[in-house]
Structures are given as structure tokens and as C-alpha cells.
Amino acid sequence: MTRIWNDPADFADEMTDGFAAANGRHVQRVTGGVVRATESPRGQVAVVVGGGSGHYPAFGGLVGQGLAHGAAMGNLFASPSAQQIQAVAKAADNGGGVLFAYGNYAGDVLNFDAAQEHLRAEGVPCATVAVTDDVSSAALEERHKRRGIAGDLAVFRIAAAAAEAGHDLDGVERLARLANERTRSFGVAFSGCTLPGADEPLFSVPEGRMAIGLGIHGEPGIGETDVPTADGLAELLVAKLLEEVPDGTAAAGARVVPILNGLGSLKYEELFVVYRRVAQLLEAAGIVIVDPHVGEYCTSFDMAGTSLTLFWLDQELEALWETPVDAPAYRRGSVNPAQLKAAKGNAAADADAVPEADEASREAAGVVRAALGVIAATIDANVDELGRIDAVAGDGDHGIGMQRGAKAALTAGTAVDAGAGTTLARAAAAWADKAGGTSGALWGVILSSVANRLGDNGKPTLADLTAGVADGAKGVMDYGKAEVGDKTLVDALVPFAEALQRNADAGADLPTAWKAAAEDAARAAKATADLLPRMGRARPHAEKSLGTPDPGAHSLALIATAIGELLEGRNDHA
Amino acid sequence: MTRIWNDPADFADEMTDGFAAANGRHVQRVTGGVVRATESPRGQVAVVVGGGSGHYPAFGGLVGQGLAHGAAMGNLFASPSAQQIQAVAKAADNGGGVLFAYGNYAGDVLNFDAAQEHLRAEGVPCATVAVTDDVSSAALEERHKRRGIAGDLAVFRIAAAAAEAGHDLDGVERLARLANERTRSFGVAFSGCTLPGADEPLFSVPEGRMAIGLGIHGEPGIGETDVPTADGLAELLVAKLLEEVPDGTAAAGARVVPILNGLGSLKYEELFVVYRRVAQLLEAAGIVIVDPHVGEYCTSFDMAGTSLTLFWLDQELEALWETPVDAPAYRRGSVNPAQLKAAKGNAAADADAVPEADEASREAAGVVRAALGVIAATIDANVDELGRIDAVAGDGDHGIGMQRGAKAALTAGTAVDAGAGTTLARAAAAWADKAGGTSGALWGVILSSVANRLGDNGKPTLADLTAGVADGAKGVMDYGKAEVGDKTLVDALVPFAEALQRNADAGADLPTAWKAAAEDAARAAKATADLLPRMGRARPHAEKSLGTPDPGAHSLALIATAIGELLEGRNDHA
Q: What are the alphabetically sorted keywords of the record (chains A, B) (predicted)?
């Protein structure tokens, strides 16, 4: 939904003013829209685009050297008037005539045609190419009825590149028409946008469902389905577009520019996940991918949706496609052309050799692996709860971060045939690497501190373990710069380490000392719930933070308790 | 909310793969993130940025010539691990040492510091600048505790430009630190994002409210307020940032790069409306605006919010700022530097001279103005209903489009002192221009057809009016390529024109003939509700389209009826 406006009636004008103010290097505000702020060669065909506003970068964001010469910017989702179009075209004209290019909508056709007639009557040569890339909006036999969506970009760029290359109006029109013939798009949507000041979205799609072929203003689609996976969506989009290869030729061997366009609030990260599969599918079909585009090129305010465009190049079009562009929202070509590197990557160095270990330590490594299994299982069983607790005061990903780390630690610890110290060290490194974030780094420190004391020779003693845990607590405090009372992992780790030491000094055996220490840790973790939230981590609604423990401290207590049970069980059977 | 993923646990990896696949011209995928795909000069300091994923263009989108040499890309909102950072830094290193730059968050500091220690131990010189631009996250005396948000861009760019300019590691660090000292940001939010697979958003802000100073992961803000106007928001952001001018110097005369950053679903159009006022306020404070940025530079998935960054240049920084950049999501510098045009604009030509008119026609112009007043009032009174009807089968803006047009027509008709024909012609032109879209163009045709028949001499006759309306109906059909039965304005306009003719032919006077015709138009408009919606205009849920008339036909009937009442009243008093 739109959040911010002054008087909704002034929105489009104020938007255009603000756009021009922000982009004075590229565009000049004129009656009806914007034109290039930079000089174009005398006699160059002027490419004038336009349409309703609300689709940025379309249309004003596409004005600049190498792209459009002017854009008529209508009201929100409403065609510009013939007067606006005429005024922009006159300001953009370089004496070489005007090529109008815009998406094929009834209101735009009406107004652009009227402007064209007026200009011709005044002696300005004009031609028009209405973009018809949306395959879902009419059958192939009725291509002229199809709507124009993100494929606009391909047609606009070719028209502009042709003008730049010195073609006359006929030549520019021919090439723009060819580009339109070879551009196909297909889109889906999950929700519509709400215009400034409106009470309701333009359309809605039921929760969990996805509209197929829906237009960028909510025009009718061809169906609805459950929301697929990202890969499923890629398959749907590619399959639909491969049904209609231009000229009926085969896809294999064709050179294609894919444009995966976000409509506003389906964001870049999601588009990249979808594109990953799109690229695989196109390559599997034998298509050569040229200059892929993944981003926002033609939006519909914050509508959630995406479309895939395939622009089927031929030799002439591909040469034009390389024309540099410098527009507010679209730039192509590098100022400092740089040499491409040879692909080399930095695959992790081969694992270091496994140090020698004696039989006793190898046996102890079995206990380490069992402990890693218990940790992974404990986190798995509590992942949702940990996420919930973290969501109160943090970003809610503590559970999945811990899960990622514990799983990686178990895998790494199981994969190596080594002594107890090396086994745990490998697990520690894997945890830190795969979990990332703060908790990943801190658990890496704890486990590697213990690993250093266990060593690879001899059966580890209770004293080794106690010293390792103490080292870990100290390491975490140094590393994380936190102290007891800061409501972090440290609040449970320090009491745990101290209790383990105290009970060991008092002569308790490992299971007994550990169990007592785990109980202290659990008590201390619980107490973090009674502390005020730390500045810098708490959420704006502070009262929500009271009553839930710190998730890091809670995780430590859960793990300590579970390992205590493992040790007790082992002792029973020893 | 996030809509599309495969396994949420794989999201970050698949996103990075897709990002690298889409941007092979700029980046190379390596363990831990991406590095430039292009060669950098041997010995150049490598700028390595990074952080959690979910903030695109930060961080991978900022890798390329003139910007970062590499980006460590962590899991969603989780710091990359020390291993990831180390691996990326090694792949990015050109033998000139590594400058780490990233937003100041606990997890990032932990992991980047650990990576730095390891690299130094291996003999790679390293330095670090953590970005601390968010003024809402700590007091000025505790600047080192502040978070890094969209100001990242300023610091990253200066660091990279300094490296490009040949500074050594100390020099790059000094300049990056200077940039950070002179960068301040302040943000607001309306809603939080929902991570892939999560059930709930990371945070929420009550409907109609705006959180002030909220961090990009939902960290605590400094307050909450009702959603302001766009201008009010601009005033809030600028006022807050002008409280803290670096060095305590005056703002007046300073040269500043403003960065108005969208967090994901507060879209470009809204940002431009806000920027319009930001620019006014900065200029009013005597600040010289340099290279304004309005767009998405550091997002938080589809979080709705924005931040304003002011980057206070000095001479050294401004020179570096002009360094060209060619990264996937950020480009600066033009390949074809073009001459800026002199500002000239295309202000609408001075109004043509008003044609001569006789007294009778000037008197009739008074009736035209009264009719324009009635039209504007009628549309005002029905604007919401018209919007609602249009929302069923169209995009819901018919009401506001008609309102814009009718208001402009009244203003233009009142501003001119002319005969009836010219008065109505001016009104027709203003309607078409200000309303735009299909209905604006068609009402322009109707009114100008009538105007042509009214002329500027003599009292217009019923025959003139009847002929004008008939011309209008024909013009609309030609122009809009619609026929009776297509469920458009034509469905009411044609019966209206025919009935007017029929009743006039039968000897009725103007008020009687008009009233009868208006009744026919109203009946015909109502009947459009019983027609099936036209393909190409209907909404996906077709059943909703039944039972509501076409908004264009309905508008015409409303206007015809209201003018009928005006004429009748005039007659009563005649």
C-alpha cells in the first residue's frame, strides 16, 4: 500500500517534480513530463515514451543518453493527455522526427494517436510502435491486442539505439517493430497496490494463491494457482514463454536477453532465487543467455509480482543492444572497461592433514560425536521456541542459526577420523562457518576452547574439560565484549563454568559435576528474563521483552542439560 | 512478506548463486560471497564489504569497478562467518592489503575482527572502518555504538575511490573514516518484513502509525507518531539531521549528497514526493545539493520505510565522489559524456488570442460556465461512488480522473472572457489535458464538438446544441473505436444524442428535450450493468463485474441529469 503523500490529487505532479529535482544530471522537467537534460545530435530521431505514472523506472527513469529522449508522464495509472504528449514530443524533437513507443493500452493509444496527428499536421514526422509483449493478454493471432509490460524496455532500448546509430525515422520504426516482434513476457502476481489516498487495493489475490498472467494494473489473468516454490515459478514462466518462440524457430542456439522484472514488493533476493532456476532452464533448452536483467524495470507501486521477458536477439538487434545508456534508473556500459578475470574461485583449501591420535583419544572422539548428535537433536527439537524467544528482542533467527551450526558441526565431527581434540575442533570450525552471525562465532569459540584442552592423545580428564569450558567462557567474554548481566549467552556460560569447576574441585565425578553445573546454567538463563533488555538489541515495545530469557543463554542451558543426560546415561552403563 | 522460496534453509545460498549468475559481467562467485569479475590493478587496496543478506543492493550489488572489490554475504540478516570473510578477502586481495567496511552490528564486528586477525597473522595487512551513520541508535557522545544503515554507501564509495586513486591502506582507511565521520542517517518505518518461511513479520507498527528511528532489522527506535504527510516526513528527517552538522559548523554553504533510501516497499514515486520537499528544505538551509540519490540502496526485504542520509562533503571527499562506478546495482559516470542543455522548458505557449464574440454569445457563455459549475459539483458529489464502480472492472481512478478534468474545465472556462464556443473549447482542452487517460480524452472530444457548434456569435440554438452532441457522439466512437454494447461511455452517449435529436425534431424546447434525453441516458447507463464485462477490462473475478454499470456511462448520465435540472430551473425563472 502507499504510505506517504500530501494531497492525493497532487501526487503525480509532486512526484514528477521530485523526480526531476533528484535527477537534474539526466532530465529536464517540461510541461507534460521530462526530456533529456543533455544535448542530442541535431537531426537524431527523438524516441518519446510514456504512460501513466506508478511504474517507475517506467517512464521518466528511462530518459537519458542512449535511451529515451523524453517521457510523457500521466497521472497515476492514467495515460498522459494528448497535450502532454505533444508538449514533451516538441521539447524532445531534434529535427529528425519523433518515434512514439509505449505500452498498448486503450487510453494511451487514444492520446498518443491524437498527439501524433497534431504533430504531423504541424509538420513533425511521427511514427508509433505500441508494445505488445504480454502473452497472457491475447492469443498469438491477436497479438495487436496484447498489453505492454516489462518488455517495454527492450523495445525502447532498441528504438533509442537505432536513433543513436543514425537511422532515420523509418529505420528506427522498423527496428523498434522488430524488437517488439521478438519480445515476449509472462507475469504472475500475489497482491495488488493501493493508490495514494485509496482505501482498498486495486485487486487482491487470496492468501497462499498466485494469479497467473495478471496485468500490471490488475487486468484479467488466465488463472490462479497455489503459490509454487521459487523453482516451480521459474518453470512456469519459462515453459510458457518457450511455447511461443518468435518465427516458430527452435529455441536451441538462440541468443536471448532474459528480463526478470519485480513489480514492487517481490524483492531482489527472491528474484535472484527464481533467476537461478530460470538460467538453468534456459541453458537446458540450448538458449545462450545474453546480458541478463534481474531487478525492477516496470513496477506497479508496491504490487507483489514478477514477470519474465525473453528478448530474442538477432544479429542486428544484438549489436544495438550494446549501446551504452545513462538514464536515471538504467545504466549500461562501463566508463572504465576492465578486463574480465579468468574464473578461478577460492574453493576452501584442502582439509589439513589429520594429526596423529592414540586409541584412548579416538575412543573419546566417539563421546564427542555422541555429544554433537545430542546437541543437534536438542536444537532441532527446540528450534521454533528459540526463534520465538529471539523474535521478542532480536530478529527471530537464533533458532535457525543454531540449527545450521549444530548440524554442520555434527557433519564435520562425523566426517573426520581423528582424536577427540581434532574431532571437536573440526566441528567448532564448521559451526562458526555455517551458522554465521554472533551465535555462530561464539559457539565456535566455546567448542574450539574445549577442543584445545582435549587434545588428541590420552583419555581427556575432568580437569581438561573444566579448563576447556573455563577457557571458552573467557574467550566468549573477550571476543563478544559482554559481561555477566548483559543478558547474553555469558549470563549462563559463566555460572556453568564456575559450577563445573567448583564441583570438580569438591571431588565430584564428571556426570555429577556436569549435572549440577547444567542446573546452575538453567537457573541463570531463566534469570535473564527478569533483566531489562539491553539497549541496542531490544525491540521498540520494551514491555514485550520482559518475561522471555535471552535466547543465547537459553540455548546454552538446553545443550548443557541434554549433555548432562547423555553423560549420566553413559555412566549408568559404564 | 516474502512470497517465493524453495527450502528456506537454502535461500541465502540460492540467492547468491542466482545473483552471481545474473551478474557475470561484474561479479565472480567465490566461497563466502562474490568478488569483482574484472581485473583490479596489482597493489590496489581491496575494499571488502559485507554483512547479512536481505539488504540488496547491499552487499553483493555494490561489487564492481569503482566500488567494492568483494562482498562477504552472510545468511539472512546474519553476519557472514569469519571463514567466509577471510575467504572473500583472500580472493579480493590485490597485494595491497584489505580495508574492511561494514555496518556496525555486534555479529559483524565479531566475525570481521576474527577474520582480520587471521589475515594479519598470515601477513595480509588489514584495516577496518565500521559504519555508524544511524543517529537514532545512540547519542553523539557514543557514536561508536551507532548502527550502520544506508550511509554504508557513502563510506564504501569513498574507500573504493581512494583505493582507485592509488592511496595505500593507511590512506584508504583515513578517508573511509573521514567519510564515516561526515555521514549521518535517520530513518522511519511503517511495517517490517517477513523472512522466507517465517510465519510472522520481524516487527509490526500499528496501522496509521510510523516508527521513528527504527533500525533496518527492527532494532529499537526513539518513538512513534501518526503517519505524517510526505512534506511532514521530509521536515522530520531534515530537522533531525540538521541538529547534528559534522564539526558543529553551520549548514549554510555546505555541500551535501542527500541519499533518500527506500527499504523495500515504500516505492520510488513516494520517495520522489518526499524528496521534492527534502530538496526545498536543504536549499532553504543554505545547503548546496550535490548528486542527489533517491532509490533503493540498502533494503530490508520488503520492509516499508525510508531513511535520509546526508553526506557532508569536503573538497577531498567531493573529488573522490566523482569516481565512476560500474557495479551490478549501482553505476555512476556516463560512457558518452553529453553536454548539459541550457534549461529552457516548454512552458505551454501563451494562450491564443480570444476571438471576437457578440453580446448574445457572451451571455450564453454564462450558461456554459454555469453548466461547467454543475458538472464539477456533480462529479465532486459522486467521486467516491464512481471510484467504487470503476474498481470493480477497472483501476478505480475514474472518479478522481473525472474530478480533475471537471475542475480544470471549470477553472479554464471561468478564466476566459469570450463567447460561448471559445469558453467551452477552452474548458474542453483543459479537461483533456488535466484528466489524461481515456475519459479525459473522450470528454475533451464531447465538449469541443459542442463548442464548435456553439460558435462565438449569436445565441446558440437547440439545433446547434443537438448537432454538437451528435458530433460528440460520433467523435467519441471514431476516436475510442467503441460501439454501443461495448459497455463504455458510448452506451449512454449515443441514446442521449439520439433522444435529444428526436425530441427536438418533435418540437420540444431545450429543457424538455434535454430532460427526456437525460432519462434515456440514465436508463442506458443502468443497462450496462447487465452486460457481461468486456474482455480486456474486466477484473479476474468476473462475477464481481455483474451488477455495476460502466463508470463512464454512469458519469455521463449523472452529468446529463444535473444539466437537465440546471436548464429546467433556468426555464422556471426565465
A: ATP-binding, Kinase, Nucleotide-binding, Transferase
Q: Cβ contacts (< 8 Å) between A137 and chain B: which residues?
A: 536
Which residues, 6 or more positions from A554, have their beta carbon under 8 angstroms from its beta carbon?
A: A386, A389, A492, A525, A528
Instruction: Classify residue A348 by burial, with Cβ atoms within 10 Å: 0-12, 13-18, 19+.
Output: exposed
Q: What is the CA radius of gyration of chain B?
A: 32
What distance separates the 2 farthest-apart alpha carbons in chain A?
Answer: 105
Q: Identify the closest residue of chain B to A217 by CA–CA distance.
A: B395
pLDDT in tens, B377-405: 999 999 888 888 887 766 777 888 899 99
ipTM: 0.87
Q: Please list the helix, strand and coil fractions of chain A in percent, rounded to the nearest 5, in that order.
A: 50, 15, 35
Helix, strand, or coil here: B286?
coil
- Set A55, A69, A167, A217: catalytic member: A217
Q: How far apart are the CA of A138 and the nearest CA of chain B, in angstroms?
A: 9
Q: How many CB atoms lie within 10 A of CB A353?
A: 6
Q: Does A268 touch chain B (CB under 8 A)?
A: yes
Catalytic annotation, residues of B: 217
Cβ within 8 Å of A, B 72-131: 74-84, 87-88, 90-91, 106-107, 110-111, 114
- Give A384's contacts in chain B (Cβ within 8 Å): none
Instruction: Encode pLDDT of B227-285 as tens digits.
Output: 999 999 999 999 999 999 998 778 999 999 999 999 999 999 999 999 999 999 999 99
Backbone angles phi, psi at A202, to 5 degrees: -65, -30
Euclidean distance between the first and final Cα of chain B, in Å?
65
Give the residue carrying C-alpha cell 592414540: A358
Residues 392-411 of A with CB under 8 A from B: 395-397, 400-401, 404
Helix (H) or strand (E) holding A155: helix A152-164
DSSP secondary structure, A250-265, as one string:
-STT-EEEEEEEE-BS
Is residue A217 annotated as part of the catalytic site, yes or no?
yes
Best of A267, A350, A449 to substitute, by most chain B Cβ atoms within 10 angstroms, is A267
Instruction: Domains for chain B: give ranges and CATH numbers.
Output: 8-332 (3.40.50.10440), 359-572 (1.25.40.340)
Find where cell 532500448 sits: A157
CA dihedral sign, ordered A366, A370, A376, A379: negative
A139 — contact with chain B (CB < 8 Å)?
no
E strand intervals along B230-342: 255-262, 288-289, 293-295, 304-312, 325-327, 330-332
Q: CA of B454, closest CA in chain A: separation in Å?
A: 23
A390-447 pLDDT, tens digit per residue, is: 877 667 778 888 999 999 999 999 988 999 999 999 999 999 988 888 889 899 999 9
Q: What digits encode the pLDDT tens for the residues A26-72?
A: 999 999 999 999 999 999 999 999 999 999 999 999 999 999 999 99
